[in-house]
Batch of 3 targets.
Target 1
Amino acid sequence: MSFASLWRELEPLGRDPGTGGYRRYSWTPADAACRAWFTRQAEQLGLAVEPDNNGNLWAWWGAARENARDGAARDGAIVTGSHLDSVPDGGGYDGALGVASALAAVEELKARNFNPERALAIALMTEEEGARFRVPCLGSRLMTGAIEPDAARALSDDDGVTLAAAMAAVGCDPSLLGPRADLLASLAAFVELHVEQGRALAPMGAVIGVAEAIWPHGRWRLDFGGRADHAGTARFADRNDPMLPYASTVLAARQIAAERGALATFGKIIASPGGANGVSSSVRAWLDTRAPDEGTLEKTVTAIRSAAGDAAAAHGVTLTVRQESYTPLVRFDENLRDRITGVLAGAGMPVPSLPTGAGHDAGVLAARVPTAMLFVRNPTGVSHSPAEHADPADCEAGVHALALVLADLAARP
Ligand code: GLV
Ligand code: MN
Ligand code: MN
């Protein structure tokens, strides 16, 4: 089983034939196909696959897993992995590259008869994108206690299906959701390989990078409430059209964020009732904001909320704003990063350190476990899009780099 053959099998799962993008939403048939693929590949490698109580899958390397369980090496497991869920019409590499590379790296280690002294596992994390239930990195947030189990169970998708119902429908018990201090305490390091999102490595002539930090970021839901009316008869002066303050807010957000070196994006909007010949009764929109530091993020969001409030008032429209998720600034473990950089430099691979504006489970786990990330060059930088790409040779280099890192971490304290 080479990386190329793993990739060939994974590639068609959950891909929309019309757009070429992926729709791998958690707890759907596409997600089940991805989980089945992961389980099959891990078992072929001799790994034992176990679900945890939060919907993540863990594939443990044979005897090492027994060590991790009996307490002798509970403080020593080395974990790699990523996610297989996607954003709407996402690219093929975001998450998937880390999972396929983890499997291929373990295969590389097994092929050279490497015998890990520490427990070694591949984690398949659930709902990393928050595309269905709107809270990203849900699997790692639940594990670390960053979200209350009751709040998670009550999250609902756009059709009103709760996370609890979606899990129960596929035979997973949502009453078990909750923090796993025991599992976290058994991990010595988590290393997530990921396709680069952005384009920093290509101009540097580097294939692999390591993560330095993740910008703080969050999502806010804005509900503009107006009054439905007739597009052909309601005079402008008589309208309470929620689309207008929404439109002003989009433009204001862009300017406010740009002035502060932050990013603000409206990528999802639901206009109700959705008639082409009517004024909307409401507009629900989601704002994603990210900034280099938490103070700038807070100021950016406050200014956008204030601009939205002013625009709503000017049009006789109500506004409510709700924070749906928040991730503080993450700085990855410096010792682990130095060790990884040293291992790869020793193998002739210089690896620059990069900050990123993208969220990752590694970022959430970093609050509890020494964590690192490897980025594989993305020649265009495009991500969250069917155009996302990494060259096959770079993917192979990523697998090799990950295998070197895992071998180093799993071989000695
Ligand atoms: C995940 O990819 C995110 O940064 O939103
Ligand atoms: Mn993503
Ligand atoms: Mn990702």
Target 2
Amino acid sequence: MMPSQQSENASRLLVLDDDPDIGQTVRNMTENLGYQCRVTIRPNDFFDALDDWRPTHILLDLVMPEMDGMEVIRHLADRHCDATLIISSGLGNRVVDAASRAASQHQLTMAGVLNKPFSIRDLRRLLGQRPTASPLPRTAAGPLPDITPAMLADAIHNNQIGLAYQPKVRCADATTTVGFEALARWQHPQWGSIPPDRFILLAEREGLIEALTRKVLLQACATLARLRQARGPAADHWSMAVNLSARCLTQFDMADKLVTLCQLHGLEPRHLTLELTETAAMEDGVLALDLLTRLRMKGFQLAIDDFGVGYSSMVQLARLPFSELKLDKTFVAAAGHSREARTIIRSAVDLGHQLDLKVIGEGVENHEALAFLHEAGCDFVQGYYIARPMPREAIGGWLEDREGRC
Ligand code: C2E
Ligand code: CA
Ligand code: CA
């Protein structure tokens, strides 16, 4: 079959399905939608087209005689394919959902899944929507250097670790600000902004995380203090969230140090939320219980971060004195197309509420995710649909913009 003539700006859909009838039907459907469509029934032809034709979208059947869809996904990941992927199969929800999760974990960009037989409406919905970013962000523009512990130590010492702030808002109206999460960014003089995924693990491994966290806490508290000064009583209930690694949970006097830090900035402990991942919280059960209990007794807020993806144990969750549960963004991203994800979210919201925790959904990228979280009873939300993480100087403008729109 001759490919349609390639145009740089057109959307190009490449189909791999061993059933030629399905390929032909999809071709008819999508050409009406303005897509150029190319159909392959064998993996070799598919990979040739991938290289020559550079599709913007891929529709992939999971079950094929020569190479199954999971193998194709692995190859796509190895080739750093940046086309938006749709997975289709007649195997039922659980299998396609699992394949979709695997693709996301391989850093592929997923638009969603289709259960066969699917209608043109289903396909149009997926082709038309903004793709869900892979859960682990890709690196910043251009290749980054190999980061050595000495480089990172210097960066911390020389105040190159800055912060981006992402607003958290009330889920019911998606406008009332309840606080911000402070996210570390390494402002490298030569490489620009380096994301935390590139240096937090290294900091933890090399014993630099305490120093890094100190710098983060200082900046985060200073920013909240300034915002409170500028916004007056409206900001009284805002809290600033900071991420804490397990390594930071080893100093028993941490609670006292944090109280002093708050006092220095005219803040109360309730203005600071400490976000811990489940694994961080559970690593040394006894010490964590002592420390976290002290922190809560002093009035700090404690959030369990990335809930649902770590080694979660409901007993541990109930046993540790958290005040907030943050649903992991992979569930929120999948809510639009995965019944399982929706069930997990609903159960986690109920569990959180039963334990008197506020529940926050993060990774909200579109209206559908927001509406679902609202329906599920979630208290707060955070995500690109509300606002992307922003530098301190941009917060005032963002708030004014919101107020203008209310
Ligand atoms: P996290 O604590 O789960 O933070 C949320 C991450 O999700 C942030 O990535 C944020 O930019 C991203 N995000 C927010 N909204 C959306 C959305 O709608 N869609 C998608 N796909 N992503 C969204 P970021 O800033 O790259 O941080 C990555 C991780 O690095 C954080 O995950 C946190 O675990 C860690 N981290 C960041 N700053 C610190 C820090 O100061 N200390 C420690 N220990 N870890 C930090
Ligand atoms: Ca967090
Ligand atoms: Ca998280």
Target 3
Amino acid sequence: MVAQRVIAVYPGSFDPITNGHLDLIERGSKIFDELIVAILRNLGKDPLFSVGERLEMVREATQHCPNVAVDSFDGLLVDYAALRQARVILRGIRAVSDFENEMTMALMNRKLDSNLETVFMMPAVAYTFLSSRLVREVVRLGGDVRGLVPPLVEARLRAKVG
Ligand code: PNS
């Protein structure tokens, strides 16, 4: 029997990508044949970076992972996963506080497509407090985010927020 290639989608806002996201991408790329980082296009919240900018940053930050592809999507995640023939949704859980929201999303996605499995992974402990929202806030208020985002993102944040 020939083993089937497992394609996973790692969806999110990535506004901007952080080292916590990158840590999860590197972990995911080791266990899935192909990992597609999928950036949500219709962000209700006013995004700091455009979809184009977020795509560029994620592409640059994941250049060293040959089996990682970067794309954007709109509409239902389950429809996008089916389009890309992905059987897995990858999500990160940083702390217990993430669990409830992630569980309801995973169960809703299972209800919408019972063939799709959500796999949770934990980032390195050093990133358990990290989120894109906090990074944006710290930068807006003049704080230092070195070591929390890839250097190219840090430069873009400085250029954008000043
Ligand atoms: O980085 P985020 O903001 O936590 O990512 C949330 C995301 C993009 C995974 C979620 O909002 C999503 O899947 N949106 C697509 C719309 C959808 O499929 N909704 C129903 C699933 S519960």
